[in-house]
């Protein structure tokens, strides 16, 4: 069975998720945007052994510490989709622009595409390409625990920004409705910022993508 623990990191309070298999304690970290020592301290407290870094997208608050973590621990970086290559190339510029520590450059060990899977211990998660916030944004869906790690695609009561380079509002709305809603109303999602919610709750009440919009 999978378990997860959320650690808010960076001045943007980005939800970095520690995900692990309870049988093997093999763990992945989703979106280590910064505050790497805090992430590693939480892993040690939980007795976890990181094996992979998974990225939903390459904005600085989600990917800023990925390169350093990969080098320090010898970990593969999995994701995002190749559409975010230009954001990875611009990490140094992003860190300077937003006052983050310098981001170590990296090349993903494995790019992800819609329909791919990732494996952690005895569990397999599905990958959905959900562009709009960024062109290469992906989402990780764990059907066995009915959880989706959606980065900045969807929030409780809101949706991701689309005013960054290569953002696309119509594409984002389509990603949510066509690729998230089919996961089921009872699926709880962990957004990149703020509290968890469920797809059913957002379908009923989200003013941007609810069924009444």
Plain-language structure description:
- The protein is α+β, with helices and mostly antiparallel strands and 213 residues long.
- The strands form three sheets. The protein has a six-stranded mixed β-sheet with strand order 6-7-8-9-12-13. It has a five-stranded mixed β-sheet with strand order 1-2-3-4-5, covered by helices on one side. Strands 10-11 form a two-stranded antiparallel ribbon.
- This is Zn-dependent hydrolase, including glyoxylase.
- GO terms for molecular function: hydrolase activity; metal ion binding.
Structure described in brief:
With 213 residues, the protein is of the alpha+beta class.
Q: Keywords, please?
A:
213 residues; alpha+beta; Metallo-beta-lactamase, Chain A; 6-stranded mixed β-sheet; 13 strands; 28% strand; globular
CATH topology: Metallo-beta-lactamase, Chain A
Largest sheet: number of strands, sense, barrel closure: 6 strands, mixed
Q: CATH homologous superfamily name? A: Ribonuclease Z/Hydroxyacylglutathione hydrolase-like
Residues in helix, %: 25-40%
Which strands sit side by side, in order, in the main sheet? 6-7-8-9-12-13
GO molecular function, one term: hydrolase activity
Keywords: Hydrolase, Metal-binding, Zinc
Pfam family, one: Lactamase_B
Domain Metallo-beta-lactamase: 13-193
Write the layout of secondary structure elements.
Layout: E1 2-9, E2 14-21, E3 26-30, H1 36-46, E4 49-54, H2 60-63, H3 66-73, E5 77-78, H4 85-89, H5 91-98, E6 117-120, E7 123-129, E8 138-142, E9 147-151, E10 154-155, E11 158-159, H6 169-180, E12 188-191, E13 197-198, H7 199-205
Parallel strand pairs: 3-4, 4-5, 9-12
Antiparallel strand pairs: 1-2, 2-3, 6-7, 7-8, 8-9, 10-11, 12-13
